Amino acid sequence: MSYELFEHRADIGVRGKGKTCEQAFEECAKAMFSAMVDVERVAPKKKVQFDAHASDLEALLPEFLNNLLYVRDVQGMVFSRFEVKDLRQGPGQWGLKASAWGEKFDPNRHEPKTEVKAATFYQLSVRKTPQGFVAECVVDV
Amino acid sequence: MRQASEWVWELPMSGQMRVPGRVYANPYIVGHVLDEVKKGEWNPLTQLKNVACLPGLQKYALALPDLHVGYGACIGSVGAMDLQEGVIVFGLVGYDINCGLQTFVTPLTRKDVKGKEERLAEELYRVVPAGLGIGGKVRLDKDRVDEVLERGAHYAVENGLGLKEDLELMEEKGCIRGANAANVSPEAKARFEKQLGTLGSGNHYCEVQYVEQIYDEEAAKAFGLFRDQLIVSIHCGSRGLGHQVGSDYLKVLEKAMPGYGLTVPDRELACAPIQSEEGQRYLSAVYAGINCAFANREVLTHLARTCFEKTFELKAEEMPMLYGVAHNTAKLERHRVDGREKELLVQRKGATRSFGPGREEVPEKYRKVGQPVIIGGTMGTASYILKGTRTAMEETFGSTVHGAGRTMSRVGALKQWTGKGVVDELARRGIIIKGHGLKGIAEEAPGAYKDIDQVIDVVHHAGISSKVARVRPLICVKG
Residue ranges of the Archease domain (chain A) (predicted)? Predict the structure, then answer.
């Protein structure tokens, strides 16, 4: 399991790798928050939960990430721990159940970086590799 | 790409293209574009070509010299659509709806600020909410959000957060007609409840600048500009609301496409016929996003003025608006196509309207010279005030460039510069940077952008906007 940021001309790419597709999504979320704050300093104090749905597996990644950005804006929280479950194809759409742990954003403690505004379809890819799964896309900052 | 004239390169018709592509450039810009093309499959020329495949596009798919790869369409692109045959395209508006620039002028000169720079910078940093997760000073409930979405900057002015006189001096007079808050999701509205009057981060800023050079005395006089004068520019957009509208409608449009027999080469070019139910809904939501950004910039203008009121004992009325321009928009405008004037949906993604003299959309005050076109540079280099031209009306549906355009990724910039290094270097050059995150400052290092002077040279010589003044930064508050 690992996450990283990758280069894009104007914005930032976020990439997560894991043994399962769920883990790759979780790591990708961590990558996105690592672009915004020092995730090591974000205590997983409070849990939020949501379901996400999309027309296909790839579209589910930005949908999942955008849901997290929504919670960030509305609840003023940042997150450092993520859990994705039941990622599967249902009737007519893909879905997942997500939990995220974090706390109220504190500019003095969390080392703010850049505000991610939206996860996009740019360089969007969810793929199986010999080592497991990779989930990545570019986020608009 | 082949050179069509001194300042225009053409992407000839091929594959599914319905119109040719056109790039306003010089060899320096072409070099940057080709460099990007070499790097990968996702590049601005492929994106321009993809846009040229859309139905109803008039004359050309246009790209301006600040072009770089974007979402679906490249940043710095313009597409004008026939209202019957054309589509409204997600990628030609993008995520940050009506990101734009608003500038007000002051009666002060550089001399007046000597010795007070740090005080003013601190005051702006304290008063202008900026950076990740920083809420505004105004809290809105749901009904108030709807009002902002339908009334734009008028909402701000009526609530004492701006001057009435400002409204005349913004595109669409600060409120575009046809916005429908009912077509904006509750999620989008919820994101905006704490965000009215916030700068955000990324490339957004509030900058105190001085007029370094005047190129066009007559236009400068009309715009109220003089040498050494202090002016203030604010760059930001519709915040989380615009992005949520974008993400929401990307899904709506994608779902609608098969029903209209539409296919696109890139998911972020999702579109719907302009006259369709989905197209009209999206357009009215884009309008709501446009109004949201007008209100946001007006509140920020108000806040920045209060800093000058306090530091220099000025009255807000002594700091009139120069103009407010919008970058990521879709608007109904009348233009000439094949010798006939018709109404089109002009979509600008990372491009500025550049209406020439005589157009009724240009405020009366400026109608003789053309609209002010405000171009943001980087925090270390020049910005420009241009004017709109008749050539722009003929060639680019009244559009020009919007900024310098990046040449280096944010991740790449972080490898090359540190935030502290950038702040110290700019301080040596007399520029104070106040940022809410050092990493964000490194990402925005001036060296990560194209040379603004080259970019402006292209649009000036091509005639799609004309130089009025060059301004330099003194204080920059970054998110």
Answer: 3-141
